[in-house]
Specification:
This protein is α/β, with parallel strands linked by helices. About 30% of the residues lie in helices and about 20% in strands.
């Protein structure tokens, strides 16, 4: 997994194992109120990554983690608690605001939001965007504020090889 300490980080994800490692690194750095927007093509592995993050946050291994495509938001019993959202079906910005994502964040929940880029403003400021690209399979992490930058740096540090 190649690492870049700049504000725009690319991580190689050649295997499912590498994606699980990224999920564990995100789990170690994720705190209450953090927002991670996950983007990528259908089948890119967004929900797989959410599952890895939640397992890293202590979710029971028998608990199912599926994309909440029709329910839109699913709260997961992790530490910190996670609200996993899928905004694929939302057409209007108003719909995203009505979901109350910023309120969940204010209550200390970490937000993991699939297909959230068009509705980023509804989540409040300071978000980490993680875009999964295919061919080659890799992830791009982009922070847009001080807390998301700390989160990005935490991920990079957690994935860095031991000296």
């Amino acid at each position: 997994m190649s690492l870049d300490a700049s504000a725009d980080t690319w991580l190689e994800l050649p295997t499912r194992r590498a994606t699980r490692q990224l999920g564990r690194a995100l789990a170690r750095a994720l705190g209450p109120g953090d927002v991670v927007i996950l983007s990528g093509a259908l089948g890119a592995g967004k929900t797989f990554l959410v599952r890895a993050i939640c397992r890293g946050l202590g979710l029971d291994p028998s608990a199912r983690v599926v994309s909440p495509t029709f329910t839109l938001i699913r709260e997961l019993d992790t530490v910190p608690r996670v609200a996993h959202a899928d905004l694929y079906r939302l057409a209007r910005a108003e719909d995203a605001y009505e979901l109350g994502l910023s309120e969940l964040r204010e209550r200390g929940m970490a937000l993991l939001v699939e297909w959230g880029e068009p509705h980023a403003e509804a989540m409040g400021p300071d978000r980490l965007t993680l875009a999964i690209q295919l061919n080659p399979r890799r992830a791009r992490l982009v922070a847009d504020g001080p807390r998301s930058e700390a989160l990005r740096r935490g991920v990079v540090a957690a994935l860095a090889p031991a000296p």
